[in-house]
Amino acid sequence: MRQRKLRLGVAGLGRAFSVMVPTLSADARVEIVAGADPRAEARERFAADFSARAYASVQELCADERVEAVYVATPHQFHAEHVALAAQHGKHALVEKPMALSVADCRAMIDAAEAAGVQLVVGHSHSFDAPIRRAREIVESGAVGAVRMITAFNYTDFLYRPRRPEELDTGQGGGVIFNQAAHQIDIVRLLGGGRVRSVRAATGAWDAARPTEGAYTALLTFEEGFAASVVYSGYGHFDSDEFCGWVGEMGETKDPAAYGTARKLLQGVSSPEDETALRNARGYGRPGAPSPAAGRGKAAFHQHFGVVLVSCERADLRPLPHGVMIYDDAAARLDALPAPDVPRSEVIDELYDAIVNRQAPVHDGAWALATTEACLALLQSAREQKEVFLQHQVAPSRRGRQ
């Protein structure tokens, strides 16, 4: 039977949208019918690329009767407001990570969706990635015994990519905690069953010219008694993709000779305005950028978020861009996964099934609130130099529950 298309409106045509374009333009279950952005050049490009309506405000987008669901890809500080707008107009919402910047805003988003009877899915985080989900399936099967420890680390150049001023302000959702820990904590929560008991963390803000957290290390203890150590650095020195066969976060093959590219690009920047212009010049709607239809070919690898090891009673598991390595008592073997036909299709799986098939998503509001709570606890623990205990943690829901 032919699947009906989900009519999607896009709120915010910036970096998050540009990363999701290959998914949204290639997945046959989605029809992009409208978009909103304050930048005229982005609206013009969007209308041409998708033959869709383009609005200057999210309010106008949400009022469009053709829009069935809104992909909220606006800056973090506006997520709560824009999800509420979507819900008020009876629209389902797919909201980018981080869900919001406070637990109270997360709760308000959940309440707004529930009051309107609409679905709320939060993604993309890298816990959607097929190798992570396959590792979780192996754990849930019981074949390797219970989880005993999780180790995750990622070293990137995140802090030196062109940024707007608010992206270097923690209070406005800047820095690596909201942008990167949201991925890593979501991963270890999914692999570990979700229920983090406490967080003890330290953060690093080592560059006065980039005055926000660029690194962290944290220990997350789980209700079941094991712990996860998570480490992240965005300072652009060591690149942990070296440990992933030089496959980058987006599943692309990387050139080790391109070392230091991000820092070199910023050398010609003399003001926040210059950096914002540089960022915009690299974003969606820029002159000369290829069409979203370009590069639709099948990706060679799955996306990933650095090195992850799950130590279980009878084996260690390591998700990789092409499968899951299983190191058990007898041998080391690869549980291979085929290359993705559509990148990030798992996000559409959850959104489509939640709206059309009424299946409970894994990455629902309660799940994303719990990840946000852990991220906020990381900041609090580093600031107060103490262990922080959590109150809103949940286990992942099982797909298919009515």
Q: Report the strand count.
A: 15
As a whole number of angstroms, the C-alpha radius of gyration is: 20 Å
Average pLDDT = 94
Please tally the helical runs, counting DSSP H or I stretches of 4 or more residues.
Answer: 11
Distance between the termini: 21 Å
Strand order of the largest sheet: 14-13-12-11-7-10-9-8-15
Keywords:
9-stranded mixed sheet, 6-stranded parallel sheet, 11 helices, 402 residues, 15 strands, alpha/beta, globular
How would you explain this protein's 3D organization?
The chain has 402 residues and is α/β, with parallel strands linked by helices. The chain has 11 helices and 15 strands. It has helices spanning 15-26, 40-50, 58-63, 79-88, 103-116, 130-141, 176-192, 261-266, 272-281, 345-355, 365-384, and strands at residues 6-11, 30-36, 53-55, 69-72, 92-95, 120-122, 147-155, 196-204, 215-222, 227-233, 307-312, 315-320, 323-328, 332-336, 388-389. The protein has a 9-stranded mixed sheet. It has a 6-stranded parallel sheet with strand order 3-2-1-4-5-6, sandwiched between helices. Helix 7 packs across helix 11 (365-384). The longest helix is centred in the last third of the chain and has 20 residues, at 365-384. The radius of gyration is 20 Å and the shape is globular.
